[in-house]
């Protein structure tokens, strides 16, 4: 298994990419969360220019953010800067949609979008629909001497999925699979669903034993001697990611998309917190989802840290002493994970890179 790093896209991420590449990190992944982050392709372009070996991918781009030809042109542009070092990760949308108060896209729309983008990246004519209009389109400046895009080096499309319909989509149209929050014993059964869908579609993956290349999104902190999950350094490192479970419970209770996380008591408590927070800001009641997702996976809002249960941090994240973290990483590898994408908190990346470079990458 290889270790990657995942960024909530910020324009200076390239500086951290340089350090991560030197420390042995294989991949850099970037979020497509338009209301929280810098533009994902601008961020990737800078990272592409300042790295030499890292594979760069979206994790994940959302179809509703851009029409298919715009995404195809954008990722093919990154491929011109970093030939053969690019992955397009696509999904129905979690943070990027929730921050707008919107649910995930229907899986059928994701499947159609993947097919359109793949056709364009293959240099094919693709039927594009806008309302009632249907028009054939293709990328017209594919000659690499012009320097616009690179369609010669393949760009694999990986599909993010946890739920059954999305897992079937991975098998139907994906070149790889991106997942999050599944324990190792659940990864195998989810992969079986992907493989069953692939067989039904007459497809086979290129990975070992016909498996899809699998990326697992997580985060973690390697504890120092005498340090515990509740300590301030650890909370700074993983707390903003751990509190996402509270956001998800709140979304589920309010009819949104919460990855199946249900906890009515927690949702009610967070509702009360949001009311207090909104009152201080003067935020209207119809924009509570904006208050909820401010800082999502990037920082705590004032007082939000109380919703993180320190005793759950070692379960929700790869946090523990070095031996325990390595044990967890080996369990993911044994479950068939090919790439562990470690999420970073802005301003905390260097510490994570140093720890995992020394204690995990250097000892795999």
Strands side by side in the biggest sheet: 1-2-3-4-7-8-9-12
Structural class: alpha/beta
Order of helices and strands: EHEHEHEHHEEEHEHEEHHHHHEHEH
Helix content: 40-55%
Q: Kindly state the mean pLDDT as a whole number? A: 95
What's the count of strands? 12
Shape: globular
Largest sheet: 8 strands, parallel, barrel
Strand content: 15-25%
Total count of helical runs of at least 4 residues: 14
Whole-angstrom Rg: 20 Å
* Distance between the first and last residues' Cα: 8 Å
Question: Regions with pLDDT < 50 over 5+ consecutive residues?
Answer: none
Overall description:
α7 (184-200) links the parallel β8 (176-180) and β9 (213-218). The protein is 42% helix and 15% strand. α3 crosses α5. The strands form three sheets. The protein has an eight-stranded parallel barrel, surrounded by six helices. Strands 5-6 form a two-stranded antiparallel ribbon. The longest helix is centred in the C-terminal third of the chain and has 18 residues, at 264-281. The chain has helices spanning 13-22, 40-49, 68-81, 95-98, 107-121, 164-173, 184-200, 232-242, 244-253, 264-281, 288-293, 313-316, 322-334, 349-359; strands at 2-7, 27-30, 55-58, 86-90, 126-130, 133-137, 157-160, 176-180, 213-218, 220-222, 318-320, 339-343. It is globular and about 55 Å long. The protein is an alpha/beta fold and 364 residues long.
């Amino acid at each position: 298994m290889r270790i990657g790093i995942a960024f909530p896209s910020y324009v200076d991420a390239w500086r951290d990419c340089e350090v991560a590449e030197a420390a042995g990190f294989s991949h850099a992944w970037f979020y497509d969360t338009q209301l929280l982050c810098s533009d994902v392709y601008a961020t990737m372009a800078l990272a592409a220019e300042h790295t030499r070996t890292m594979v760069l991918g979206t994790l994940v781009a959302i179809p509703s953010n851009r029409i298919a030809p715009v995404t195809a042109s954008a990722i093919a542009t990154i491929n011109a800067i970093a030939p053969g070092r690019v992955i397009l990760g696509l999904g129905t949308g979690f943070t990027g949609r929730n921050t707008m108060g919107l649910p995930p896209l229907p899986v059928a729309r994701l499947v159609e979008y993947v097919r359109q983008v793949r056709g364009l990246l293959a240099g094919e004519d693709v039927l594009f629909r806008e309302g009632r209009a249907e028009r054939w389109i293709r990328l017209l400046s594919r000659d690499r001497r012009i320097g616009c895009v690179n369609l010669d080096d393949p760009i694999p499309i990986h599909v993010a999925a946890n739920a059954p319909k999305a897992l079937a989509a991975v098998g139907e149209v994906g070149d790889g699979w991106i997942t999050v929050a599944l324990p190792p014993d659940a990864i195998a059964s989810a992969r079986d669903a992907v493989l069953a869908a692939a067989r039904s579609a007459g497809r086979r993956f290129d990975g070992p034993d016909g498996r899809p290349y699998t990326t697992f999104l997580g985060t973690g902190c390697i504890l120092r001697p005498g340090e515990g999950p509740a300590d301030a350094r650890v909370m700074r490192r993983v707390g903003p990611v751990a509190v996402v479970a509270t956001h998800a419970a709140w979304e589920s209770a309010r009819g949104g998309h919460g990855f199946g996380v249900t906890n009515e008591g927690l949702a009610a408590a967070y509702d009360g917190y949001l009311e207090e927070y909104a009152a201080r800001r003067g935020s209207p009641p119809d924009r509570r989802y904006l208050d909820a997702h401010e800082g999502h996976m990037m920082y705590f809002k004032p007082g939000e840290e109380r919703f993180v249960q320190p005793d759950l941090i070692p379960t929700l994240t790869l946090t523990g002493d070095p031996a325990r973290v390595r044990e967890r990483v080996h369990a993911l590898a044994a479950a068939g994970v090919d790439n562990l994408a470690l999420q970073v908190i802005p301003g905390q990346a260097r510490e994570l890179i140093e720890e995992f470079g020394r204690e995990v990458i250097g000892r795999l």
